Amino acid sequence: MKQIVARGALAGLLAGVVAALVSVLIVERPMRAALVIEDARPAAPGARGGDLFSRPTQVVGGMVAAVVVAVLIGIVFAVVYRWVAERVHRQSAFARSLHLAAVGFAAIVLLPMVKYPGNPPGVGDPDTVDQRTNMYLSLIAAGLVLAVLAHWAYRALAKRNWPGPMRGVVAAGGAIVLAGVALAVWPANPDPIPPDVPAALLWQWRLASLFELAALWAALGVGFGLLVDSSARRWAAGQRAAVAPT
């Protein structure tokens, strides 16, 4: 278990570095554009002017935070992987890691983002922060419950000797239907989009943020899979040797 957790932390570290680089190279541009719009607005009465930290300091702090959070996610990922590996034996370790990363991304990132897509700075009423946070976290919890239910459904169908592809279609289809119900039932975002925020900037921010999280989960799944699957490591080493200059 200690080795699995250590590999999860290492994979999380690598994934955090990938996410931090994506943040700087892709997310930072719409972030700065949104900050310009926010700074151009009239200051609220009694508000303090200026930021406590400079923008470069904020960028470095964000990168460090991304790495730390990714390491914690990697540790949890490793624990869940160990639980799944004890119950799913037909897949390779690398395939299990990719599968688990895909499920984690769908439940923790994609589902809540469909209902509550990310907004840049300057969008959102500070008085509704707690309400919006609770709605977002509750939808993540619902996504995790759906993932567990899909896993149980898949195993239940396996005990009835259903074919593998059919089990996957039924379990995934049921989860998608229930996810649609959750999206319809959960309350909408209470905050309107300010008129001074261009739609192009809004969607540029949302897509960039989604890409950052997708890169994190993809790097986590691939990195952890390579660390726990010796055959995958040998294949990767062979690929590197094949492209290395002679």
Could you characterize what this model shows?
This protein has 246 residues and is mostly helical. It folds into 2 domains: 1-42 and 55-102 and 117-122 and 195-246, no CATH class; 124-192. Helix content is 77%, strand content 0%. The chain contains 7 helices and no strands. The protein has helices at 2-40, 55-85, 93-115, 129-159, 164-185, 199-228, 230-243. It is globular. The protein starts with a helix and ends with a helix. The mean pLDDT is 86.
Could you give a quick summary of the protein structure above?
By secondary structure, the chain is an all-alpha fold. 77% of the residues lie in helices and 0% in strands.
Strand coverage percent:
under 5%
Order of helices and strands: HHHHHHH
N-end to C-end Cα span: 40 Å
Helical content (DSSP H or I, runs of 4+): over 70%
Mean pLDDT over all positions: 86
Helical stretch tally: 7
Radius of gyration: 21 Å
Number of domains: 2
Could you say which overall geometry the principal axes of the C-alpha atoms support? globular
Name the structural class. Answer: mainly alpha
Total beta strands: 0
- Residue stretches low in confidence (pLDDT < 50, at least 5 long) are none
